[in-house]
UniProtKB/TrEMBL annotation:
Swiss-Prot/TrEMBL keywords: Phosphoprotein, Two-component regulatory system
InterPro entries: HPT_dom_sf, Sig_transdc_His_kin_Hpt_dom
Keyword presence, Transcription regulation: no
Residues recorded with modification Phosphohistidine: 68
Source species of the chain: Duganella aceris
Residues covered by the HPt domain: 26-122
Protein name as it appears in the record: Hpt domain-containing protein
Length: 136
């Protein structure tokens, strides 16, 4: 299984190594984790579109909930930088620090795009093993 993640992503962007380890680090775990990754990333940029609309309409609680949910689902993928950026934005939203929200939103959006990029690369890298595991 050590070859399951041949990529060496930047620290804290995306890593499912710990999740794989806790799930048994075998082909079954790889299949489950790949599904978790696909499901977590499936919404693409939709959460940011929804949160941006909520912020424009000053529905701060709704925007905060979007980011909290995103942090929970994507955070399980070893996205430490995204978690940190999300917490900063969520705090600014909760405290209505409107001057800081746009830059924090942009920083979080950038981190999320990096997670999506690295998750997609990881899924491509395991595709042969994932396909074999699904047939087994």
């Amino acid at each position: 299984m050590s070859e399951a993640n041949p990529l060496h992503p930047e620290e804290g962007i995306f890593s499912v190594d710990v999740l794989l380890k806790y799930m048994g680090n075998d082909d079954k775990a790889l299949g489950i984790v790949s599904k978790i990754v696909r499901d977590a990333c499936a919404p693409g940029m939709a959460p940011f579109e929804a949160a941006a609309a909520a912020l424009r309409e000053q529905r701060y609680t709704d925007a905060g909930k979007v980011f909290h949910s995103l942090r929970g689902s994507i955070g399980t993928l070893g996205a430490k930088r995204l978690v940190s950026a999300s917490l900063k934005l969520e705090q600014a939203i909760a405290e209505r620090q409107e001057a800081h929200i746009p830059s924090l939103f942009a920083a979080l959006e950038s981190e999320y795009q990096l997670v999506l990029r690295d998750a997609a690369a990881w899924l491509r890298s395991i595709a042969p093993q994932d396909g074999q595991a699904a047939q087994a």
